[in-house]
User: Fold this.
Amino acid sequence: MKARPLALFALLYLLVLYAPIMLLPIFAFNDGTVIAFPLRGFTTEWFGLLLETPALHRATRNSLVIAVSVAVLATCLGLFAARAATRYRFPAKTGILGFIMLPLVLPEVIVAISLLVVLMQLGLDSGIWSIIAGHTLLCIPFSVAILQGSFANMDQSLEEAAIDLGETPLSTFRLVTLPLVAPGIVASLLICFTISLDEFIIAFFLSGNAPTLPVYLWGQLRFPARLPMIMALGTILVVLSILLLVIAETFRRRGLRRAGLKDSGGFL
Amino acid sequence: MRDTSSERGEAPAIVTLQAVEKYYGEYHALRGISAEIRQGEFFSLLGPSGCGKTTLLRAIAGFEDISSGSIRLDGRDMEGVAPNRRPTNLVFQSYAIFPHLTVAQNVGFGLRKAQMSAEDKRRAVGEALEMVGLGDFGARAAHALSGGQRQRVALARALILKPRVLLLDEPLSALDKKMREVMQVELIKLQREVGITFILVTHDQEEALVMSDRIAVMFEGGIAQLDDPETLYRRPSSRRVAEFIGMMNFLPARVTGSGSGRIEAEVAGLGRVTLDAGQCPGEAHPGAAAVGLRPESLTILFDGGVAHDREVRGSVAEVTYYGDMTYYDIALDGAPDTVSVSARNMPGRRVLERGETTTLAWDPRALSLFC
Amino acid sequence: MNGVTRALRSEGGKGLIMVSPPLVYALLLLAAPLATIVLFSFWTQNFLDIDRTFTIANYAEALSDPLYRELMLRSLRISASVTAVTVILAFPVAYFISFHVAPQRKSLWLFLITIPFWTSYLIRVFLWRVILAFDGPVNGSLMGLGVIDEPLTFILYNANAVIITLAHAFAPFAILPIFVSLEKINRSLLEAARDLGESKAMTFLRVTLPLAMPGVLAAVLIVSIPTVGDYVTPRLVGGSGGTMIANMIYAQIFDLNDRPMGATLAVLAMAIVALSLLWLIARIRFWLWLAEGRGVWIALAAGIAEILAIRAIFMLGPAIVGAPGTVLGLLAVATLGSVLIFVKVPKGRAGI
Assistant:
């Protein structure tokens, strides 16, 4: 395959990929209530409106609480799984790890309704904690994927060397493992946070009366008057996501530099 | 080859292995290993890949449990003793240098819990680095070092803790040839300087011969022979050990009689031969056998050489020139395969050509008989 | 040390202990709930009461009612289209990044490609609705350029819109696995092929493509399975012609108050998707094997014959053995055939 037409194709592809998102800031600052061309003028009133909507603030708070909890919980569980995967051999290893990674390929609807049905049967209320549980399930595979890379990059004999030199397994973890895996942990926290923040289906099925940000967004979609505000909100969310990602990527690269390794290109 | 002085032979045992067995599930990795390693000696575990030498080393270090038997260090049984509590330190094959620390931090890593002032620790690190020739490297980032430098950092890091035994897992295998030769000499000097017992694992027999006081040759989980290098070389206890250490020619033979410390045999290519009983490990029984002789045991009589007691004629099949030596593959009358014969290249002495016939002298005392 | 302590202290024991927290979590929150909905699919519901008598009435209804069948088929068709479009478009991009981008720039490209994926999925789907709308940018620019006089109506609120939107959303999912497998190809293999006389195009067909197949297969799986069960996109841009099985499942549970039916549809959907993929992979192996052994035409003929046969059975079956029988029978035969292929036909050169 020749390079030039391919390069053109790739650039076009990127453009199409970003096209929808680029509309967000355009219409977020557009002085008009209809989301259509031609554009009318510049205004920041939609952003202002965002600050005055208590329902939005509640939803945001819920989302943040959930996302932080999910990030911590999923990363912790992911640490266990990643370490088991890279350092130990045990019976049914492939099966167990495959099962833990299953949520990656299951349609979210299936996960959502199975959790919902169980909750209903047990007579429990859905709400924030059930969303946390569902999101964590979804995020663990991502955390495992990231941390597995971190552990695999770390020479196993480093931990043995630390023990040989007199450290306990706990202090070895603190002095050797943690510093070298830290960038992966940070990346995992950020990625899980982002996934949870944006996740819709499970939150939709399980939210009860504690809507998250995406659920709130969904509710607003049928009101044409609210659309510009949604554009503004969307702009903020996109900018936030991109920021978090850039930070995560910086950490990942710094981690590689620290360990003196070469870049193999991306998280996954 | 190391100079074995008699004091070494009488040093107390610092590591005692008794009937050590190890199973990985069904796989029998170590079979009844018993040996004594003496204080202050440079001891090597030598064998092909998979023979269990690294497993044994790691068991001594405490990273592998043994299925039965005992390992004693300084008289204490090490059963259940974790690696961080044993008086040993291990230099890993990959060196395991902590990439997120500087060289000095690496070397001083094991001193963290030591009862020393910060100033003393700094001084100890400096001395350790000097000892391995990396005096100025303290502040360098560890991940930017070459292979040879990493190895020295690993040595310094282990030796600074003054272990009773230093364990080295194939420390030179990752280095290129020149570096390896340099480090062999360095390791010998280092060991002599600090006087600590070294146990080294290697698959390179040349390396073991050069550096060790004693060598344990291992095959398939067991010790085949434990001796000093010279004895291993001149009196291998089995054909397999003979083949593993150095180069050995084998000629088919037939034992015709034995008794009162002498053995009579017919050797293909060499004729009738009378050997001392000590030249045969084990019992010599009549029948088919093999005779082994090293390439240097056959001397090519270049034109003008003195006539010798035992001589034989042969023709040159292959010539391999090494610069300081030349190895000839020579076909002897009556011998099914060629024998490899070495000759020093000296000024005035020419290199024989393929197809030439020549006369070789040999000494029956250099033969080994394998039944 | 007794047996239990020994087992726990062994490497296998320690590994199991280490993996137990996430494993237990997954068992509690994934295995148990999944088992529950399977259970549910065999129960029935009257208003708010769940009748726990074991029954296959739900399955009978799901398999006979043409509405559900149509929805399931449509979901499969949409998913297949999305997968085809996404993977085919993704391959050149992955190839470009792997072969024509400097090593230090590769992670930048990958980073740029994955960023849109990390922004809100909901927002992206919504934006497509905006873009494809009657008075949206697509129509606006096409009319402005004079290409069309009237705004296009077939680009929104139907299956096409769903396909476009999903293909856009899942693009990064397809690029990454293909990229990874392309990266793994040892470049000296390609040089060797050239050295032995092959043209660039043939080298690609004979060396690069087969070696990239595992990545392509992974991309197919990663895109097809989640898209079959997507809810948001059909809801927002699908209109009535683009609803998919997930919308029906939602309707059963929340609107119609029939949780067992929802569960049944979910279980059926998962089973059908899994078996369809099994069928596909088995057939690919089989057809490749035929092509190598007996020639490309025979393989083509076999493929076409089988697909035609399946369509025929699908159309004529219900009249003879009833709808449920047809579907179950087809599934059984397809699965048996697939198992046979996996056992008898060896793995091809493409690693499938």
